C-alpha cells in the first residue's frame, strides 16, 4: 500500500511541475489542456516524454512516466488520474504551500516505514531555525549583496530526503542577501541567487529515489519561474553483498569522489543525477562545503534498532560488515553503536571547510550518551554555536515520523577553538508551528542576550508577539570541560539548569535563595559495584516456572513498584547450551555479581515512582542494575545500600538523576551502566555516625510506605519526609519551593509548562 501511495504522490508532483513548466514553455500543455484529451494516461505520458526530450528533468518525469506505463488501462485508472490532476490544480493555487515543501510533508506522512528505514524528516519550522542560525553564523568572504559571490557557496545534505533542510538553507541565504541589499538601499537579486545556488551550490544525496525526486522538485518550486540548466541532486545506491556492497553517501568517508561500481551482472551502478538528459552513471566530485546540514538516519546497531533496516537480512549483514570496514579503514571517528548519525557527522566534518558550518538534527543523547563519545570528541574541537532542545510536552522531536527526543546543533569547524567562546543553549517551551513563526523566534534568539549559566541570577525569555517560546542561556564549554552538555538543557526552567550546574560543582543552589551550601559528591563506581546487563542474563539463564537457587527481580511495572522494599518475583535456570546466534555466558560468574540494591536501567518519569529499591537477598534482573556496596561486612553493606536507596529517592537524589539523564523520548529515559557508574552521588562515607543513625531510623519509618509517581514530587509526603532528614544532615534550607518548581517540569508532570 505504501508503494501505491508514494506512486500517486509522484504522479501528482509531476503534474504540478508540468504546470509550472507550461508557464514558460509554450510547447508544454497545462494540466487543464491535458485533461481535455480523451485518453488521460496517454496524454500525460506524451507531455512528460516531450518535457524529457525538449526541456530537462528527465529522472523526475521519467520516474512518473514509468509509473504511468505500468498502470493498466481502465476507467478506474482514468478516474484516479483525473482526481490527482484536480488535486494538483488546487495545490497550485497556493504557491506559499509549494515554497514550503508541501509534497515533502505528504511524502513523510505516506512513508509508513520511516522508523524501519531510520528516515525521520525535519519539520519545516525546525529546519528554518537551524539553517537561519547556521547561515547567519557563516563567517566567509562572501559579499552578500553580490549574486556571483553568493553563488560560490557550497551547501550539501548527504541524506537530503525531500530536501527540507536544503530548501531552508536556500531561504536563509536569500534572506541574508535581501537584508544586505536593504542595508545599502539596493534592490535584491533573488532570481539570480536562486539560479546560481541551485545550479552550482546545492548538493543533495539520498538512497530513496522517490525522496530525491521530490527534493529536486521542491527546490525548483522555491522560485518556479527561474529556468534551470542543471542541479546536483543524486540518488545514490544502497545495497549489495560483501565487498560489492554500496553504502549510499557513506561512501564519501573514503574521499570526496563517489566512484562508479559494477554489479555482478556487469551493469553499472552509481549515483544517478536528477536533471541530466541521460541516465548515465556519474562519478561525483563533492566540493569542500561551506555548510553541511543533515538529519541523518538514527537507526543504531543496538537491540531491535537495525542499521540499514530497509533491506533484507542477508543484504543488511553485508552492509553492516562493510560499514565496520569503512569506519576502520578510513579512521572515521564514529561509532556504529550510536547509529548512522555518528557516522554522518564524522563524514560531515571531513567534507566541510575550515570555518564552515555544520547544522545537524541529532538524537538528544548526542549530548551525553555513552555511544556518542566519538562524536562528542569531534564537537569539542569545534566552536559550538548553538544547541536547541524542546521541552514541549509530547513534542520533544524536531523530526516528523518520530517521538524521539532530538537536538538541533549548529557548530563551526575551526583550526583552533575560539578563546572565551560561549555556546548558546535554548530550551524551547513551545515549538513554532510555521516557518513564519520560526523566523520570528530566530530573530528573538539573535536579538536577546542569553543568561549566563554560572551567574546566580538572571533569565532570558524568548518572547515574540506575546508568546513565550522558551528560555536561553550560555556557557563557556572550554572553561567547563567537566560539565555535561546535557546540564544546560536539562530543564525547561533556567533556574533548574542553574541548580544542576552548581550541583555538578559540589554546590547546592536553590532557586530564589541562591547558593545555600556545599555537598561532597563521589562517582557511584567508587563506592559501589554494578552487576551484569540484562542481555548478559539472557545469555546465561532462562526463566524457570519453578523455584531455583537463582532468584530474580524481573520487570518494572509502575503500578507494582510502590515501596522501597521489594521482593524477588522470578527464578532463573542456567542455560545448558547457547541460544541461537548467541554466545552462552557463564551463569556462575553472572550470579557472583548479583545484588540487593536495584537501580533502574530506564524510567518513565511521569509515571514511575522509585529510582532505587532494596531486596531482602541478592538477585539478578533484566531491567535493573544489581548493585552492591564495595566495602565492609554484610551488615555494613546492607546499611549503606539502604542509605543509597534513600538518597536516590530524595528530591536532591532524583534531581541528580534527572539533570544529566540520557533522554530517549521525553519522560522515557535510559541509564546505562557506565552512566550510573559516573553518577555524582552523595558521599555517604563522609557522614557522621549520628547522620547514619538518623538515616537508619528513616529507613525503618519509610521503607514500607508507598510513594507517589515522580510526576507528583511536590505533593509526595513520603519524599518530603526523606528530604527533611537530608536537609538536616546537609544543613540547608527546606526544599518545599524546590520541589514545587521541579514538579512543574513537563517531563515529570506530564503536561505542558506555562
Description:
The chain is of the alpha+beta class. Helix content is 39%, strand content 19%. It has 27 helices and 32 strands. Strands 1, 2, 3, 9, 11, 12, 13, 14, 15, 16, 17 and 18 form a 12-stranded mixed sheet that branches. β7 and β8 form a beta hairpin. α9 (124-136) packs parallel to α17. The longest helix has 21 residues, at 2-22. The relative contact order is 0.07.
List keywords for this structure.
754 residues; alpha+beta; 32 strands; Rossmann fold; 39% helix; twelve-stranded mixed β-sheet
Topology diagram in text:
Elements: H1 2-22, H2 31-35, H3 40-54, H4 58-69, H5 75-92, H6 95-99, H7 102-110, H8 114-117, H9 124-136, H10 147-150, E1 155-157, H11 164-183, H12 190-201, E2 202-206, H13 209-221, E3 232-235, E4 238-239, E5 246-247, E6 257-258, E7 261-262, E8 268-269, E9 272-273, E10 284-285, E11 289-294, H14 313-330, H15 340-351, E12 352-363, H16 373-380, E13 382-390, E14 406-413, E15 423-428, H17 435-447, E16 451-452, E17 461-464, E18 467-475, H18 494-504, E19 507-510, E20 514-518, E21 521-523, E22 528-530, H19 534-540, E23 541-544, E24 551-553, E25 570-574, H20 587-591, E26 595-600, E27 602-604, E28 613-621, E29 624-629, H21 634-648, H22 651-659, E30 662-665, E31 668-670, H23 673-677, E32 680-682, H24 689-702, H25 717-730, H26 736-742, H27 746-749
Parallel strand pairs: 1-2, 1-11, 2-3, 11-12, 13-15, 16-18, 24-28
Antiparallel strand pairs: 3-9, 4-5, 6-10, 7-8, 12-14, 13-14, 15-18, 17-18, 19-20, 21-32, 22-29, 23-25, 24-25, 26-28, 26-29, 27-31, 30-31
Helix pairs in contact: 1-4, 1-5, 1-7, 1-13, 3-4, 7-13, 9-11, 9-17, 11-12, 21-24, 24-25
